[in-house]
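JOB MANIFEST
job_type = single_chain_structure
chain_count = 1
residues = 206
[input]
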Amino acid sequence: MKNFSLVVFFRRAMQLVDDRFRKDRFFLFDVFATPQKRDVSNSARLVFERESWERLKAQMEYITTADILKAVQEEEAGKPVSDEQLREFFRTASVTRSHAIGSDSDRHANLWGISTVYSKPSIWLTINPLDRHDPVAAVLVGEDIDLDEFVKTSGPSAGNRSRKLVADPFAAVEYFHITVKAASEYLIGTNPPIDRYTWNTGYSAS
């Protein structure tokens, strides 16, 4: 049997016809939390293996509660932290979380990477499809609707559609990707390569 990563297992489980995984809130929590904890732990291990960590650890033993409260007040005031040891500690903590999936640093890295490879975007566009009023979204959550011969007065009410989308967040995400991809190709006229929208979670928008 070929080995595969935990992320691949999560992705396949979410795509099964049996929707018990995608509707299980604890499973969805594990889908995001487990890879994040793994990435943070790997980054922390690399930090602890550096020679500079022993020096920083020795310096932090002399940090008092008053020093931390002062640093918090400086951060809230929009000022740089004056304590050099705390500044170095914050930089180290930032490096530890920078590779975690879904973190601000991870998203920024993806954006900068795309800009480097494909150049800067000329238009910033936000697409926010209204899923609870779209029959395509209703089909994705399991409603029996014939989209070829669609009757707008048939099907569940808006309240039922909303409740089903809330209960099945994977269907809501799938609807978003389908809609954005269709808008990009047919309204804007772009057809980017698939790997342009493939993130380090392994999930592709195609």
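[summary]
Confidence is low (pLDDT under 50) at residues 194-206.
The CA atoms of residues 128 and 176 lie 8 Å apart.
exit_status = 0
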